[in-house]
Amino acid sequence: MTYDNILLETYTENIQELELEQAGLTYYPGYDGEIVEKFVTCNRPTCPCHRGYPHGPNKYFRHREGGRWKELYLGKKIIGDYLPKVESNNRIREIDRELTDLRSKLSAVKRRLGLRDKNDAPVQMRNDELD
Ligand SMILES: [Zn+2]
């Protein structure tokens, strides 16, 4: 087995595993963003948070809305709803990036091994080559 044969096998297996994982995930519209943690101070002037003991870390859902970044405080009532859905959407996107990378590596290996790739453009004759 050549090194390229091993790569071919590895990439193919990794792609299959990622596709399988992705198929098992649910995409939740409205939950695209990231979870950020922040320490904050409150409005009560006498609170210790103003003397170096801030509240937190509090979790926020950071997302784009109408071209602007927004942060939604994830309080007790909604945090259980947001965490798994945001995580699921992010994993789907992460897998998309990994698959794009692996598929292009796989195509390169197949070309080196002289194998046809389903992503290759079909061979077409140019018009000026036709009689
Ligand atoms: Zn405070």
What keywords describe this structure?
131 residues, 3 strands, binds zinc ion, 3-stranded antiparallel beta sheet, elongated
Layout of strands and helices, then pairs:
Elements (H helix, E strand, L loop, with lengths): L2 H21 L10 E7 L14 E11 L2 E6 L2 H37 L19
Antiparallel strand pairs: 1-2, 2-3
Helix pairs in contact: 1-2
The chain binds zinc ion.
The site of zinc ion (ZN) has 6 residues, from loops.
Question: What does this entry look like structurally?
Answer:
The protein is of the alpha+beta class and 131 residues long. It has one domain (3-115). Helix content is 44%, strand content 18%. The chain has helices at 3-23, 76-112; strands at 34-40, 55-65, 68-73. Helix 1 packs antiparallel against helix 2. The longest helix has 37 residues, at 76-112. The protein starts with a helix and ends in a 19-residue tail after the last helix. The mean pLDDT is 92. The structure holds zinc ion. Residues 41-42, 44, 47, 49, 55 line the site of zinc ion. Zinc ion binds next to loops.
What's the overall average pLDDT, rounded?
92
Q: How much helix is in the residues?
A: 40-55%
Detail the poorly predicted runs: none
The largest beta-sheet arranges its strands as 1-2-3
Task: Give a brief rundown of this model.
The chain is built from two helices and three strands; from the N terminus they run αβββα. The protein is of the alpha+beta class and 131 residues long. The chain has one domain.
